[in-house]
Task: structure prediction
Amino acid sequence: MTIFLNLKEELKREPFKEFFISIPLKDLDLPENYYLEEKNIDVKLHLLKDKDGYVITITLNTTVNMSCDRCLTVFPQKFEFTESVLFTKKLPKHQELSEEDLYSEYLEDEEKFNLNEFVREEILVNTPMKVLCKEDCKGLCPYCGINKNEESCDCEIKMRGKESPFAKLEKLLK
Ligand SMILES: [Zn+2]
Ligand SMILES: [Zn+2]
Result:
């Protein structure tokens, strides 16, 4: 189910508002490497009326089970961030945004703000380029497929001896 916020209505009487909202992880439509179990994600939202639109600040402090890019083990990936985005109908006045400028996005409908899409995007942006169960994950052996964090094998030594012409060179040079 998609949650829509009526920003106009939410900020009718006050210039800002802060609240928590729970969204089922399954409703976020995340890619396959996110393990979509039955679980809610608690999101802290801060809505602020701005002359050009609405500044929405999201704070997330949770874990989502993900599969490691190297060893494929499912592990809890931490998500701990706060991001502010200006949603506006106006295009930025200056083409060049300075670093202090808020990241801005086009606001389609202030009465129907798609919260799921926003949370999804922020999770994607805050996912590391390489998702690793631990920084020094050794991954899977490309020859026998064992998880090298848990077991060891001598495939690489064997293969190096057989295939590489450099192995022969190495011996000659010694
Ligand atoms: Zn791993
Ligand atoms: Zn192996």
